[in-house]
Amino acid sequence: MLMKKIMSGNAAAARGLFEAGCEFVSSYPGTPSTEITEEAAKFNEIYCEWAPNEKVAMEAAFGASLAGKRSFCGMKHVGLNVAADPLFTLSYTGINAGMIITVADDPAMHSSQNEQDSRHYARAAKLPMLEPSDSQEALEFFKLAYKISEEFDTPVMLKMCTRIAHSQSLVEISERQNITPKPYEKNIAKYVMMPGNAIKRHPIVEERLKKLQAYAENSGLNKIENGEDNSIGIITSSTSYQYVKEACGNKYPVLKLGMIWPMPDNKILEFAKNVNKLVIVEELDGFIEEHCRNLGLNPDGKNLFSCLGELSQNIVAEKLGMTANKYIKLDENIPPRPPLMCSGCPHRGLFYTLNKNKCIVLGDIGCYTLGAVAPLSAIEMTLCMGASISAAHGFNKALGHEAENKTVAVIGDSTFMHSGMTGLANIAYNQSNSTVIILDNSITGMTGHQQNPTTGYNIKGDPAGKIDLEKLCRAMGINRVRVVDPYNLEECDRVLNEELAADEPSVIISRRPCALLKYVKHKPPLKIDQAKCVGCKSCMRIGCPSISMHGGKAHIDNTSCVGCGLCVQMCKFGAIGE
Q1: How far apart are CA 42 and CA 10, in angstroms?
Q2: Are 556 and 525 in contact (CB under 8 A)?
Q3: Euclidean distance between CA atoms 165 and 128, whole angstroms
Q4: What is the pLDDT of residues 192-214, one digit of tens each?
Q5: Which residues of 402-430 are buried (b: 16+ CB within 10 A; e: fewer)?
Q6: Which pairing describes strands 254-257 and 360-363: parallel, antiparallel, or unpaired?
Q7: Do 273 and 295 contact (CB within 8 A), yes or no?
Q8: Predicted structure pTM score
């Protein structure tokens, strides 16, 4: 029975997995892709898990496909970099049961450290990539992707983006398909990618790409919508298609590409013949534009639309010479709301201590990256998941004693499990005198409180295997492993200086659960004794959003204060208490 519901793109994608008979999901959380796996976990028919990182997730999904069950792995764009190793070789091996690899790009970097365009991966790996433009297409494309995967013996990449993933639209849902598992058959020539076998698989990949291109020519994924005025023809995809339709309506003909790789060359050329000027509307890189130029066309594209950030209906309307004043524009200058650590964040005391001791802090990816923001201003480098530890090792090896007694790496518990362990192994093996601080807040914080291998719970909140960070670090060859409470500034200061002074590698585990976790019990909000407050602003140095100055005196917002007590330790005049 068919039903209609309002769903986000991510929820619709998960519904597509369910309806298509997917049985195995392995992902690592990363905005804007996280909710696909969270939503899929609500279906008991699908086994779902959080993997330690994206590479592991992709390899696990391939294993399930090899075993004959339809599988899925999801990640954000930078996560695909981590999984690139299996990705390129999976193109050679092909699959058994259908396998979908979803990557979610983040134009404008709402929650990312770069703005890379994942379409290049599909072309480089010679894999098909689909790109939905709304929630209904997300559901349909995910179901279709499994058919393409099994018909052409290939993983299928499915690209989302922030707007499609998180916006909501009407979706028609149906029942789950009962898919008969494919039997596993031993095939060394297909699945063992040693050079002698791999060299024979490459021609198969090239031939498959030709067949996929023929499929793209006739597939309903790529469709032409006629317009009233052929002076301009627009080729577009994904959320850019929505902007084009909002800005132009049915004025100009549009070639909407739902299969972004390989592209339908003949359809593109035929479309271009019937318009006076060809315009490519796409976010980030000129991927479609470059392909059109390789076909001998001369479209407008990045000469009109920036390769930076997101597009909008207003930008599209302006660049196409449409009337843009019918779209709402705010005249008021909205004050910026800079990101900051929450009230009671367990990382705040540790970063204050690092700043106070003038440490060189090499940071990592997580909500603790906000330790770089004033007034703490502690973190001096953030590159990618796990890089803090590896970079600290190289930094200390390069500068020796000049750096060792003041340089630290900071990394979260989930990020440490993701890709920090290998960096720590490098320190233990090559013996740099480096201090690593693991910020253990008992959860994967930045992406919305997902479990990880150190929490003892799985994606459904059920008990699971739990990795002991102290024992793990010692087993890796680190003899000095200390645990501190980041709410205790004196303890943090003492242990930090002891470990920096030690003449061997060390790990400090700063352990306190995220203040936003539902099970965390907070103390009553603190108050300022106005008679004792001298307005010295010492309490402001920890950057707590609950503390502000009014009339020259400190003020604590009792609706957000969690009573962590850091400010009490900052005040020399005893002006703060319960």
Answers
A1: 13
A2: yes
A3: 20
A4: 999 999 999 999 999 999 999 99
A5: ebbbebbbbbbbbbbbbbbbebbebbbee
A6: unpaired
A7: no
A8: 0.93
